[in-house]
Amino acid sequence: MNAHVESAKAKPAPMVGVDVGGTFTDLFFFDAAAGRFRTAKVPSNRGDEAVGFLEGLKTFGPLAQLGSIVHGTTVGTNALLERKGARTALITTRGFRDVLEMRRRDRLHTWGLWGDFVPVIERDLRFEVNERVLADGSVRQALDVEEVKAAARAALARGAEALAIVFINAYANADHEMAALAAAQEVWPNGNLACSSQILPEIREFERTSTTALNAYLQPVVGSYLAKLDSALQGEGFGGRFHIVQSSGGVMSTATARKLPVRTALSGPAAGVIAAAAIAEAAGYPDIITGDLGGTSFDVSLVAGGKTALAAQTTIDFGLVIRTPMIEITTIGAGGGSIAHVDAGGMLQVGPESAGSRPGPVAYGQGNTRPTLTDANIVLGRINADRPIGGKLERLDVEAAKSAIAAHVAAPLGLGVMEAAEAIVRIADGRMAGAIRLVSIERGHDPATFAAVPFGGGGALHVGALIKDVGLKAALVPRYPGVTSALGCVIADIRHDQVQTVNLTLDALDPAALDTRMVAEAQAARAVVEAAGLPMERIDLVFELDMHYVGQTHTVAVPLPVVVTDGSTGIDRATIAAAFDAAYQASFSRLLPGVPAKIVNLRTAAIGRRPHFDLRALAPEPGTTVEGARRGTRPVWFAGAWHAAAIYARLDLPVGAIISGPAVLEQPDATTWIDPDLVARVDGLGNVIVERA
Amino acid sequence: MTAIDPVTLAVLKGRLEQIADEMDATLYRSAFNPIIAEARDACHGLYHAQTGATLVQGTKGLPIFVGAMAFAVKAVIDKVAREGNLQPGDTFLFNDPYDGGTHLNDFRLVRPIFRGGTLYCWLASVGHWLDIGGNVPGGFNARATESFQEGVRFPPVKLFAAGVMNQDIIDILAANSRVPVSNYGDLNGQLNALDLGERRLAELLDAYGDAVVAGAFEAFSDRAEAMMRAAVRALPDGTYAFEDYLDNDGITAGRLTIALDLTIAGDTMVLDFSRSSAPCAGPLNIAYSTAAACCYVALKHVFTDVPANAGCLRPITFVIPETTLLGVKAPKPVGGYTETILRVIGVVLGALAQADPARATAAPFGTINALSLAGHRADGTRWVMFSFFGGGLGGNPETDGLSHANNPISMATIPPAEILEAAYPVMFSQWALRPDSAGAGAHRGGFGAVYEIEALTDADVFLLGERGLYPPFGVAGGGPAALNVFSWESEDGERSPPLASKVTDVKIKAGQHVRLETPGGGGYGDPRERRLEDVVRDVRQGLVSPDAARMAYGVALAADGTPDAATTRALRQGAAA
Hints:
The complex is a heterodimer of chains A (693) and B (577). Among the domains of chain A are: 2-79 and 223-264, 2-Layer Sandwich (Nucleotidyltransferase, domain 5); 89-96 and 104-204, no CATH class; 493-609, 2-Layer Sandwich (Dna Ligase, domain 1); 619-692, no CATH class. Helix content of chain A is 31%, strand content 28%. Chain A contains 18 helices and 33 strands. In chain A, the strands form eight sheets. In chain A, strands 13, 14, 15, 18, 21, 22, 29, 32 and 33 form a nine-stranded mixed sheet that branches. In chain A, helix 3 (75-81) packs across helix 8, helix 5 (145-157) packs across helix 6 (175-187) and helix 13 packs across helix 14 (463-470). Chain B folds into three domains: 6-227, no CATH class; 360-525, no CATH class; 532-576, no CATH class. Chain B has twelve helices and 20 strands. In chain B, the strands form four sheets. In chain B, strands 2-1-5-4-3-6-7 form a seven-stranded antiparallel sheet, sandwiched between helices. A five-stranded antiparallel sheet of chain B has the order 14-15-20-17-18. In chain B, strands 8-9-10-11 form a four-stranded mixed sheet. The interface between A and B is large, with 67 and 77 residues.
C-alpha cells in the first residue's frame, strides 16, 4: 500500500467519488493525470451496500489502478432514523442518568399533545457513579474507578455492545471522564467506547450526552460497514486510500470515521452542496442556493461568496440531537413522491405524506394510486414517459397518473385534469420557493443576487418557477446534476473540527493561556488531517470563537484573523474585541458598549486544501451542434395551454448554445424544463444557465 | 369579495404565513431577553381591519398568544373608535391585561396598515419582557392582591404618531423596570418585526392586488369555520361537564374551582364557565380575553388540522362571567395567570374526552413551577436564578404521554443544568425522571421530574406552582398522576410550604437543598389493559415500582422482573369482574 501511495505522488492515480443513496449509487471517476472523468449509476443494494459499491467501481476498470476512493454514505443516518444502532450503555454522574430521556423539555409538535420519545439508550442501561466536578472545573467529589468497572461489567451482562461515558461539567475538567474511560477499557471487550470530552468538550449536558450516545450507538454499525467495504475493496486489489465525507463537507479518514461516526450523519447531502458550490463559483456564480429535490423532500442550502454555511447542530429526529459542525441544510417535505390531496377545508395540499421511491408515483405502476408531484410533471408532458430516469422502468403509465389526478384533485376542486396537474406543480413550487425565501430573505440575503443550483434528478424541472416566485437572478443546472454528490466527494477538502468550551469574559481572559490552548488545538487538528494521507496543497487552520454579551443565550460565531507562526497565534484582547464587534454588528446591527463580552467556546478547524480540480474537464467536447442535439418537439402544458416544446439531448448541446423556452432538455439522470418566457444557454463548463428572456 | 381560484388561495396561504413566520424570526434573533430569544415567548400576525379578528398567524408563535392577539387588536380598534385620529405610521403599545392582554410582562405593539388611504388590516407583535416593576423581580408575585403590586400598566397609547416616536413613553418605560436596557432591546426587536411585516405585506399586495388578498382572508376564515363546524358536528350532541381545581390563591388556603359545561348542538359549541369560583384575592385570576384564548389553545391541540384564524371560533360561544375568576377586571391581580390557564385548558380537554374518547388527551402536568433562587456571591454581586420546570404530558389513544415536556401553552425549552451552574452559584444534585409520577393507563402518562438544587451561597427561595393538592386527571379509565411536591432543608429538618406549591421569601443557607418533584401526565384507558410487556419494561427501567405495577396495573412480577402469569391473570380478571 505504501509503495502505491509513493508512486501516486509522482503521478496522481485516479480517484473515485461514491455516493450511496437510497435508490441509486452514483460514482464519479477522475483521472487528474489524463484529465479525464467518467460517471456511473448503479442500483443501491440496501443492507448490503458493498455489492452496488463494487459493481459501480468495476465499471471503471480494475480497482488496483485507483489511488483513492472518497465515499458519501447514509448508513449512519439510516441507522438513526430506523433505530438500528447498537445496544448501547451510558455511565454518568449520580443524579443525571435521565438527561438523554429528558431532553431540553421540548415536545414533538406546537399543536397536538400526542406522541412520545424512546431514547437510544434504555434506562436500565444507564448507570450512575459517584463523582462530581463543578462548573469551574474543581472536583467536589472524587471518582471511584472500581464503581466504573462494576457499571461497565453490569452493562456487558445486559448485552451492551457500545459504551458512552458522560460526566457533568466534563467540558471544564475532563480528568474524571478520562480516568473512567481508562477503567472501563480494562473490562470492555471491544473499541466501541468513548467519553464526551473526546467527542464534544462543550457545555450543555443534553447536547453533549446525545452526541456522545449517538456516536456510541453508531460505532459498531458504521465500523462494521466500513470494515466490510474495506475488505471487499482489498479483495479486489484496491491498495489506495479509502475516505469518508463528513456532514461538514470535509473529508476524513476511515480511521477517524470509525471513531466519530456521528460526523457522517449528513455525509451525502453535504458532498452535493460542496460540488454545487464549486461548480457555480467556477461558472461565475459565487452566491447560490442549492436545491436537491428527492423522493420525499426538498433540501436547500445557501452558499454566499463561495462559502457554505455551517450549522453547529442538527436534529435527526425528535430528541436525536447531534452537535457537530455540519453544512446547514433546510429540509421541507416536498419531493417528487409527495402526495397531492384536497383537505377537509377544500384546500389543495402537496405533501408532507409521500409515496417515496417505493411504491413511488402512480405512473411507476408499483401500487400507489394517489397522485404525486412527479405524476403531475408526467401528465404535463415535462417528463418523458418513454424514457424514465434511472433506467429501471421501461416506460411510465401516463393514463394512470392522469386518472389519479382526476379523481383526487380535479374532481374535488372542479378543475380539468390538466389544470389540476398544473395546480399540483404550482403548490409544490410555492413550497420550494418558501424554503428558498426562508434560507435567503429571512437571513438577510437579497435573493435577486442569488442563483438556484438544482441537483439530484428532479430539481431542474422547477427552476423557472423558483426564478420567478422568489426573484432569483438565474438558475444554473450542472452538467451532471445526478452525480453532484459523487463529484463533491472528489472535490471536497480534508477537514477536522474541534471545539473546547472556554467560558470566560473577555476582561478575565488570559490571552497567553488562550494562545497556548489554540496552538495545542491546532496541532491536534492538523495531525488528524495530515494522517489522512491524501494529496493536499496546504493545510489551513481556522479559529473561531462563540461569543455573546454576558446574559445572552445565543452566541455569534467570531472568526479570528490569526495564524500560527513560530508556535504562537499572537492573539490579544484587542483583536478579539474588534472581531466580536464586527461579527455582532453583522448579525444584529446594534452593539452594547459597556456590557461585558464573553467567550463561550473555541472552535478550531484544520482544512487540508485539495489540489485544484479543473471543472473544464466536464465541458462538452467540441464539434457538437444545436441542431444535432435536437430531438423534435413534444406537447407540454404550461399556464393553461399546450405548447409545442422543443426537445434537446442536453449532453449533446455545444458550448454557447442558446435555447429559448418552451423547451425540455433531457439527459439520462435529469430533465430541465424551460418556461416559455425563459432562455437557457450552455456556458463554457457545460452548465445550463436559465434566465429571464 | 373577489372569488379566488383554489390554487392561488393555497399559494397565498403559504406566502402570508411566511410573513408572520418571518416577523417571529426577526424578533427571536434580535430580542435581548432569553424568554423571547430562547423560549420564544412571542407571536405575530395579521388582523382584520374592522373586527381585529385573526386573519393569518405565524406557525411558530407561542400558542397562548395565538389565541389572545385578536383581543389585543380589538382593544386598539375600540380606542380608535372612541378617539378617532388614526393615521398611517401610528403604532400602539400596551400591556393592559384587562383590555386584550394576558399579564403585565406581555407587551403588545399594534400597527394599522393603510392601502390607498383606507385601513386595510392590522399587524401586531407581542413579546414577554423580563421585568416591568412590581414587588417581585420578573413579575411572578404569588402574594399580589392588586395589579399595582405586579408592575406598571399601560393602556393602549400611541408610541408612534404618524411615524414620529414619542420619546416620553420610552422614558417612562425605562423608569419603571429593573432591566430597562433589556426591555428597550425587545421593544426594538418588535418594531423590527413590524417594519419587516409591513414591507413584505406591501410587496405581496402589489403583486396580487389588494382585493384578491382580501378575498383570500375571507376564504381562509370561511374554510377554518367549515373545518371547525365539521369537527364539532362529528361530536355527539349533549352537555359535558368537567371540573378541576387550583390549590389556593396564594393568599389563603382553599381550593378554587374551574368548572366547564361544554355543550355540543349540531355544529356549534358552547363553553360555559359560570359554575367556576368567584374572583380570588391572590394573583390566580385571569381576564375574559385570556380565558377565551386558552380555550382556543385547547381546541387547537385537539383539532390540530383546523387553521389558526378567527373563523374557527365562529361556531364557538363563550360564557365567562365577570363573577368568576376567569373574567376579572382591573385591578384584580393576574400575575399567576399561567397556572389558571393551564387548568382552563385541562377542563376543556377533560370535557372533550367525554364527548370523543378517540380524540382524548389526559391532563398534562399542568403547572409552570416558576422557581427563583436569589442571593449574593462572595464578591457581593446579586444573583437571581429563575426558570420554569417540566413535567409529563397525558396518555392518549395513540401513545403514552411524553415525559418531561413543556406545557401546552408554550414550546419553551429548559436551560441545561450546566448553563445554570456556570451562571449561578448552584449545584444540581439531581436532574432526573420521577418514578411513579405518571398516571396509570392502557397508555400511561409521561413522567414528571425531580430537580434537587444545592445553593452554594445563602439564598432566598420563591416558587409559584400548582397541582400540590389536586393531581392531573386521567381519562377513559386512566388514573391520575402524582402531585407536585416542593421541599427545602432547614436547620430543623425538611420543610414543605404551607400553601402547597407557593413559597415566598424562604431563606436557606449555603449547602442546603431545595427539591422540586413535578407531576407526570394523567393516564389514558384502563391500566389493566396495558400491554404486559410495557408494564414489565417500565418496571425494569425503574420508572414504575413493583408495588405500582401490582396495584395500578394488576401485574405481579417475580423477583427477577418476569411476570407471574397466574397472579397477574387473577389480578387483572378480578378487576374486570
